[in-house]
Amino acid sequence: METPGSQSSLHRANLERVVRAVRLAGSLTQAEIARSTGLSAATVSNIVRELKDGGTVEVTPTSAGGRRARSVSLSGDAGIVIGVDFGHTHLRVAIGNLAHQVLAEEAEPLDVDASAAQGFDRAEQLVERLVAATGVDRTKVAGVGLGVPGPIDVESGQLGSTSILPGWTGTKPAEEMSRRLGVPVQVDNDANLGALGELVWGSGRGVKDLAYIKVASGVGAGLVISGKIYRGPGGTAGEIGHITLDESGPVCRCGNRGCLETFTAARYVLPLLQSSHGTDLTMEAVVRLARDGDPGCRRVIADVGRHIGSGVANLCNLLNPSRVVLGGDLAEAGELVLGPIRESVGRYAIPSAARQLSVLPGALGGRAEVLGALALALSEMGDSTLLDGTMPTAAPAFT
């Protein structure tokens, strides 16, 4: 047994600090590990050598600043994480290793009106199919990240009231999936996971403070402050869609009038074009037509961008993020929507905050949330399991 404050307990703590830094980043040079952990270069070198000898990390030659360096990443077979993303019309599952490599990924349509039980059944089946297809050892599964399009109560783990998945209100998605799969499951809303995905793999790399704005059936924001998702005490931080733009505007699903969502979400925007473009129009089609030069679609996209920019300006004034990443189908419009967003930010945000802000399209497209689910599982798993070589045992149903 290690005595607190002893040399052995200090060594163990340093091992865990190094493993955690590498696990969260995917790969780091030894110099980056030293800066991230505050450990000396000599200590990092010794720890990396020990972890390499034990099979926990892999070391490969690389370069940094024009100089030769060594890149450290967790061993590809050290463990497996699974990401599950429930969307408005889809289910997407990905399997990755602890070196941040995606091993398999698959999506299929999901009937939004299906019951929660049917949704969980489909997710369990898809996870089992991908695990079998990749041939991974299920005892290596360290955890699962789960995304849902609605607010999660931080204390109870319940999915809050949502008109996107009405039959799911009151369910405990993490508890249910953990029971089915027999491994720890972490759950968060889709906007937060989109922020995590872009932070680790996409347009948010290299920054510590950002907002990920997702515009789909609703409008939400995932907020990253000092490198961590900010959820608020009740888990509802980032509900940018319910900023009031017009007190006399359309009635929102939340009961208020003139919320940002009523000017930008697909359910409110598409009817504006139905008389000229038909009733089968989708947001994806609107973006495609706008890029092809359709004047009506271009006008609607620009108006949506200006409204989003008003909400982003509020975020700038309150939180002063260095980057805003736009996700969802709307991001495919590129400068047709990003330009009006920047225009509104320049008009309504504090000048110093507006100058420091960059507005970019998401780099991951529809994959942002499921990759964010992988990142969530990676961030929440314990480092002791890696050092001790122990992983949670899966339930018999998980094959």
Concise account of the structure shown:
The chain has helices spanning 7-25, 30-37, 41-53, 116-134, 173-181, 190-201, 261-264, 266-269, 274-277, 283-291, 295-319, 335-348, 351-356, 368-380, 384-388, and strands at residues 27-29, 57-64, 67-74, 80-86, 90-97, 102-109, 141-148, 185-189, 210-215, 219-225, 228-229, 323-327, 358-361.
Outline the structure in words.
- The protein starts with 6 loop residues before the first helix and ends in an 11-residue tail after the last helix.
- Strands 6-5-4-7-8 form a five-stranded mixed beta sheet.
- The protein has 399 residues and is an alpha/beta fold.
- A hairpin with a 3-residue loop joins strand 9 (210-215) and strand 10.
- It is globular, with a radius of gyration of 22 Å.
- It is built from 15 helices and 13 strands.
